[in-house]
TrEMBL record:
InterPro entries: Marvel, MARVEL-CKLF_proteins. The chain crosses the membrane at residues 49-67, 73-94, 106-130, 136-157. GO terms for cellular component: membrane. Its main location: membrane. It comes from Aphidius gifuensis (Parasitoid wasp). This is MARVEL domain-containing protein. Keywords: Membrane, Transmembrane, Transmembrane helix. PANTHER family: MARVEL-CONTAINING POTENTIAL LIPID RAFT-ASSOCIATED PROTEIN (PTHR22776), RE01453P (PTHR22776:SF97). It is a multi-pass membrane protein. Coiled coil: none annotated. Residues 43-161 form the MARVEL domain. It is found in: Membrane.
């Protein structure tokens, strides 16, 4: 594990009689952020982890199938939701939540993010159905993606309520 080193050099006038030169004191700093990262594969064996992977896979299919549709809302929101989910996958995979020491309520942040994508995907699927496009595959994968985000929101809400009660 590497740590930062703080170097302090004293004034040259006080070191004039010292033949070895200036005195250097080193103090260990805080541990390096990268050293705290660990790969967290077991998270993706839990129900929230499996749902997060399902959201990513369904988002890819939904974005690909909606790319030529008349209504671009579904493609836009499913692509942006995929990017946000991919960021959360990296956060969980690299254990960034545990190693990054910032005052963020991670559970509430992820809950709001997932709930927001659930609403936006629901609106875009409804809009896609109203537009009556021939891209039924995009609509089906949009509904499945929205249901995966709704399930993720539900499990995040349960976990957030359990941690808030303690």
């Amino acid at each position: 594990m590497m740590s930062e080193t703080v170097v302090t050099i004293q004034d040259a006038s006080t070191n004039a009689n010292n033949p070895r030169g200036p005195t250097i004191k080193s103090e260990p700093g805080q541990p390096n952020f990268i050293a705290g990262l660990t790969i967290n594969i077991p998270y993706f064996k839990t129900i929230p982890g499996i749902i997060k992977l399902a959201q990513a896979v369904l988002g890819i299919f939904c974005s690909a199938l909606a790319s030529g549709a008349y209504s671009q809302f579904l493609m836009t929101f499913s692509t942006l939701a995929f990017v946000a989910t991919f960021i959360w996958i990296v956060v969980y995979l690299c254990s960034i939540r545990e190693s990054l020491r910032v005052p963020i309520n991670w559970m509430l942040t992820e809950f709001i993010n997932t709930a927001g994508w659930t609403v936006l995907l629901a609106l875009s699927v409804i809009w896609h159905l109203i537009a009556r496009t021939s891209f039924i595959g995009a609509t089906i994968f949009g509904i499945l993606d929205m249901l995966a985000y709704a399930a993720g929101t539900y499990f995040l809400w349960l976990e957030w309520k359990n941690t808030e009660a303690q």
